[in-house]
Model the fold of this input.
Amino acid sequence: MNKLFGISLVAVGLSLTSGALAADPVEACAGCHNKDGVSTDSKVPTLAGMSAKYLSDTIGDYQKKARPCPEATVINGDKKGSKTDMCQVVKDLSAADIAKIAQYYSNQTYVKAKQTSDAALAAKGKDIHVKLCDKCHTEGGTVADDDSGFLGGQWMPYLEAQLKDFKAGKRPVPTKMKPKLDEVQDSDIPALVQYYGSVK
Done:
């Protein structure tokens, strides 16, 4: 299930000034993902520690508008409270900008979100993960070398939204992942989300 959630980078919040990107794209990302890449908003993924390849690929997907770009509110910095969306904020990033962002966040330390999970649902979700997802999302989806978005310890509301987007056809599904995702029922989503949220 490679790139199951990947890092959506939803609501990255790259600050905009009259449509122009901030001078330092890494600084701009802090508007929603914080300087260390550890999100404090349950709708925004933590980027810290993910592979540079995965982060670069994800930004590229947004530039191609291959992923949904819902409106989001910047939560930090001088643009706090302003509205933006991922497709808009990444459209003018150069290859060098993308490489800088990806390398910077890949060098940060992943910190799992502090959240409460349902033990019974998490146990069911773990079984589903082992059966369908573990081959590409090893160790509960926490290994950067998998070149996929972190699952274990990621914010649960974010993960739920991404799974639903995949199932609804709003996000492109990698060929390798599709047969596995097809086996995931809508009723399995809460269990998977609770399992990933339980990973400490």
